[in-house]
Every structure is written in structure tokens, then in C-alpha cells.
């Protein structure tokens, strides 16, 4: 598998990237002989980065204070949860044992520690220890800013002692370039950001030895990040995190890095498209990228060198994009629940980031939740913005959204006609071209299946990002694009919007070429509003094939079939009627192997059976039609 992975990655690389990878390997070999140990990274004088942060936290509302205290008390009680898992509870007098930083909460096994050089640790292909995402999550030290906020607000000495214990333990257990904590640049950067925010809040309440250790961690991180950057096919959200880390560390060390600032500004326009959609084709990764840029925007303002208006306008475009997304079903593509500033579990993350953007920029927008932590850093929108209604198409992002009324129900429909993903490997994209999702009265009905797991996901990782798992057409159970690794694709379907008609009876038409080379046909889908519902027409241009058309239901819903019509119900309440061309509809949930039935992943690391409707039959240029209609509440 390791050899195959390298071969497939090489196929995605151009000559310049191959040379870069070879030089990167040379630098890693040199690092193995030279860069270990804290003595190489003395702590310089540290400077405040977010100067107004303390006053902002002291102005927290009672609801925000309660949320901060709850998060802090969880940490002080030895609790930590992330990515759908809860770590073993620790005693109050041993909150941060050295083994904590390399313990997998699922397998109970330990990843390599300071005895191993970080670049010798195979975290991509060794799944016997568990998914490396869990190890990295706790090493981000994102539990420290809530502890710092609690210390500032409540004067809780236990919080201060816990911060010192965590920093001292991490420093002792993770010398530079040793162990799994230094293996990835995004992790180096996010950890540094957590420490910078913590010092900005309560640095004067920490002991001199602890502040010295923070300075050493930041100095080592400042050395690491520019030497091993994510470039070429890897230059996605990882690069934004690395550049944000470099920029913020440079401010903390007293000298702004012009190189990091300029590179970060360039990425703003690459990774947030002109219409506000994310280039990686996943709203949650776009929000993560936007939050990193937003934090740097705030820091640049406070440093007296604000970012250009064009960069702030791109952030505003993303926030406006989010305003159109269905409130309770905004996910598609990968989602690993990456955050920058967080109290922990955040189901409304994307909207929180959008509200923070509008807050910092002084614009109306969707208001954050009353306990929102992020708004302490960036502020809240100046006023609520009216809810988006009607049809909106994001041309660069490749997504059309309709929000309106159908049979007395509020309906939100999305139609994906965008690219597979970003850059040559499209790492976080799913093979979901021409997929639909639908919410009725704000609750998900037809859904994207989600993510499940990354490195340890195995065949299930492939299923959740495959075409048969999404609400579109597939041929012979094959995906439109061809996977060649957990984060890699070789052949990539190219989708395009062919027609967009607004009005009372709007119409959208799009097509993709993912099946042309293998099956000689192009899939075209037309989605049109009619007086009594929405008509979906699927065509295969260039021939006839036996195909499958899928509608994946949200967990907790059930389907009842009467001839060619399937009624979707929540409990006893009918929500949606789907009229197929005939009764050749298979309805299944769960199964022991991928593809046996429907599954959804409501969050990273969680998986639930859910009914999957699959119509089978011949499709050609004449097309087949499927009718969707929300059911009025009074109908039974």
C-alpha cells in the first residue's frame, strides 16, 4: 500500500513538484542530524498579538461566561472529547501525563514519542495504532484558550495551574522534531496559535518558566514552518494554517513576517473563490480557512498594518455564501471538524465563522448563538440580515441553492455542479457531481452522506466519498471520478452548468463527463420547479446504460412505498413524496459492508444507518423523470 500510495501521488505531480519533494526529503534528512532539542530554540522576548482580547473577554455576556466555565470545568475534570470520541478520564492531580499526547482514544495504543524522529513516523499507512487525527486533535492545545478565558473571568487558580501543567507537560514530552506532534505543519501552526491566544489572555498570570517554554515552542515552530511548507498538490487549507501560524508567530516574536503575510494574502484569493465558495468544495474546510484568515486580519489591524480591502471583501463574500446554505445541512465534501478558536463541540461552526466575519467587518449578517465563543474575538454583526430567498447560483463554486415555499413547507434545495475539489489531488472533494440535497422546515431530508474517518476509514472512507453514496446517478456502482488513495483521485469528472433560468418556475441544467471515457456517455441532470413540486430529469447523452439513481435519507427518517411513489416520513408525519418512473426502487439501510445499504456520518468518527432509495433502470438521451414534492402538514 505504501508503494502504491507513492506511485499514485507521483502521477499527480508535475516536474516542479517532484523536485520539491526530493529537496524536501533532503531537508528532512539534514533535520534528523541537526534540529533536535530545545537548546537550539531559545525563547525570545514575546509580544502581545491580539491587544484588545482581554477587554473583549472581560465584556462577555452571562451566557458566554457560562459556556466558557462549562468548557473549562470539563478540562479541569480530566475530560476531553473531539471527533466523536471521548478520551479516558484523567484524575485532577494528573491532568496532563506525558502519555496523553500520544494516546489513541479508540485503540488505547500509544503513538511514537520522543524516542522517534518525527519524519520517521508513518502516519499515513500504519492503521494499527488508530487514526492519527485523534492524536493531533489533543496536541493542538485548543483546550487552553477556554481555560485562559475562565481564569481571566473567574480568577480560578485551578485554571492557571492547569494551563501551566499542560504547557510544561507538552514541552517535556515533545522536544522539537521528535514524536508525532511535530509531524505535520498544520498541527505545528494550530498549536502555536492556541499558545499565542492563551498568552494574550493570561500571560502575566503564568510563571516565568512556563512563559519561557511557550517562547521555545514558538521559536521551534517558527523554524519548522517555513522549512517544510505544504506546496503544489498539498497547498490547500494546510498551507493557509501554516502561513497563518508563521504570520502570528512573527508578530508574537516582535517582527512581522512580510513573506508569510504576502503569501497568506495570495492564498485568500485562491482558496476563497470570487463568489465566496471554498475552492476545496467543502463549506467546513472553507470556514476553517476563513477563520484562520480572519484571525490574521484582526491581528494585522491591531498591529497597525491592516490587510488590503480586497482580502476583507473576499472574507465577506464567504460569509454571504454561508447565508444561502441550508441552516441545518450545510455539509458536503470532507469535514474533519477543524477549528481555530473553540469551546469544543460546535454544530454551528460554519455559521459562527460567517457571523464573526460580519462582526469584524462591521456588517449586518446572521447573528451568532448567545453562547458563541468566537464573537468575543471578532464581534457580532451590526444587525440581523434578512433571510435569503429564491434561487442563487454560485458560478465559481459550482453550487445552486433554492429557498422557498412548497405546499406550505419551507424548502431548501442544493444542486452541486462544481468541480471535484482543489488542486491536482482534490484531497477533500467527493464524487458528488449533480447531487441534490433537501431540507424541509429546516430539517434535513435528502442529505450528503458525510465523512466518517480519514486514515483508518479503509473501505468505508471510499464509500462515503463515492458517487453511489450521493444523491445523483451512477453507472455500474462506479464513481464519476476515480480514487487512487484516501486523499487522491486520478481521473476527475468535469462538471459544468449548462442552463440557469430564474423566475417563478426556475430551471437548472448541468452535466459532467465522468463516465465518458469508461461508458461513452455524459450525465446531464435538469432540475426544474413546477407548480406541484420539483422535476428532476436525468439523461445519458451518447448512449443507453443501466444506471442507479440514489436518494439518501437523513438518519431517523423512513420510507414507505406505494407502487412507483415513495413517501418519506419522520415518525408518522409525511414530509416528501418522490414519484419514480416505475416501482424498481430498492430501499435499504445499514449493512455490514459498504454499498449494502444507506449510511450517514453526522460527524467525524460517527456513522449511522439510514434508508437509501435507489432506482434502477435504463437511462438514455430521452431521459427519465423523478418528481419531488413536499407534503402539506394536513395531508395523511
TrEMBL record:
Tree of life domain: Bacteria
Pfam families in alphabetical order: Hepar_II_III_C
Compartment(s): Periplasm
InterPro entries in the record: Chondroitin_lyas, Hepar_II_III_C
One Gene Ontology term, aspect cellular component: periplasmic space
SUPFAM superfamilies (alphabetical): Chondroitin AC/alginate lyase
GO molecular function: lyase activity
Keyword Lyase carried by entry: yes
This protein's UniProt keywords: Lyase, Periplasm, Signal
Signal peptide feature range: none
Domain Heparinase II/III-like C-terminal: 391-619
Record protein name field: Heparinase
